[in-house]
Design goal:
The chain is 48% helix and 14% strand. The chain is built from twelve helices and nine strands. It is globular. By secondary structure, it is α/β, with parallel strands linked by helices. It binds flavin-adenine dinucleotide.
């Protein structure tokens, strides 16, 4: 089974995410992390795509490595905002011809220089293009705490429900309180949306980085998290431990309500994701 739609239909999926490598050294690190995590048999893994196509080659190389050299089912992230139809279609076709069967279709953020050149604005446009040219299982993003560009919560949920109706599943942005995910789930239920949305877990490894990304996502950085991290701020291993503990606690709370899966950020290191995996007993929860 290599289509995520089929995997989800057979039970919850436990998956991992690798950030797109920006250098040959980072690619080697990703390859090592992928090989180490392969032993835990995640249902699938994904590889991110740098904003505006900035890691086009790195993402492609990483996806091809995982697809050809490991047993992992791999799903590339692909963004479209600020890019030409020709460039985006080129990658869609390349992945299809490589035998890749899953795609995470994203708008992505337009280039930082503010020059909005390109043929796309929204993720739904990429879904349409990919459907025209390939038979992927398509996933999309979801923001439990509302996408920062959305004018209102209602509008965000309506757009998201529309997008999910064109996709096979969603994956959330990470969050620090499981209730954000449960509220999203309930709001989508109320809109009649039945597409599974998989929550993500992010192990803090660096306080400033985690805080910055949380802020960019328009998400809450709770005081209790700040306090727990402040207590170990001078000790990198202490920070990593708190990161693992917090992700484990959020994951355990999520699992109480049987989500369609869990998606773990790896930051291209296998240790933290592997420890969270084991703490949550994901091997024993496998139904396939
Ligand atoms: P969309 O779903 O298109 O939505 C963007 C905004 O536009 C929302 O506010 C939405 O409500 C609004 N909108 C959507 N359609 C319409 C419409 N027709 N009319 C008006 N408004 C509309 N970024 C990367 O660069 N690379 C990655 O690999 C990457 N991976 C991600 C993985 C996950 C799981 C998540 C949650 C995010 C990821 N991102 C990634 C970030 C994401 O690309 C950015 O947040 C980006 O700003 C929005 O992309 P999107 O696909 O969510 O956009």
């Amino acid at each position: 089974m290599t289509k995520i739609a089929d995997l989800l239909a057979a039970g919850p999926t436990f998956s991992v995410e690798f950030p797109a490598p920006k250098s040959p050294g980072m690619l080697r690190q990703l390859e090592k992390a992928a090989r180490e995590l392969e032993a835990r048999r995640p249902d699938f893994c994904s590889v991110t795509y740098g904003a505006g196509g900035s890691t086009k080659d790195g993402t492609l190389e990483a996806v091809e490595y995982i697809h050809r050299e490991t047993e992992l089912v791999v799903m590339p992230h692909l963004t479209c905002a600020g890019q030409t139809r020709e460039d985006v279609l080129g990658l869609v076709q390349r992945y299809r011809d490589e035998g890749i069967e899953n795609l995470l279709a994203l708008a992505g953020d337009p280039p930082l220089d503010g020059q909005q050149v390109g043929d796309f604005r929204f993720a739904v446009e990429l879904i349409d293009l990919a459907r025209e040219h390939a038979d992927f299982t398509i996933g999309v993003s979801a923001f439990p705490e509302v996408h920062p560009n959305s004018p209102s919560r209602d509008e965000d949920r309506r757009r998201l429900a529309d997008k999910l109706s064109k996709a096979e599943f969603g994956i959330t942005q990470f969050f620090w309180t499981a209730d954000h995910y449960f509220r999203l789930r309930d709001e989508l239920d109320a809109l009649g949306c039945t597409t599974p949305v998989i929550p993500s877990l992010f192990p803090v490894g660096n306080i400033e980085v985690a805080k910055r990304i949380t802020g960019m996502n328009g998400a809450e950085w709770p005081q209790w998290l700040d306090d727990r991290l402040a207590a170990v701020a001078d000790d990198p291993e202490g920070i990593r431990r708190v990161g693992i503990d917090v992700a484990t606690e959020i994951g355990a709370r999520l699992l109480e309500e049987d989500p369609p899966g869990l998606h773990l950020y790896t930051l291209n290191r296998s240790e933290s994701a592997g420890e969270i995996w084991d703490n949550l007993g994901l091997d024993d929860r496998r139904t396939k």
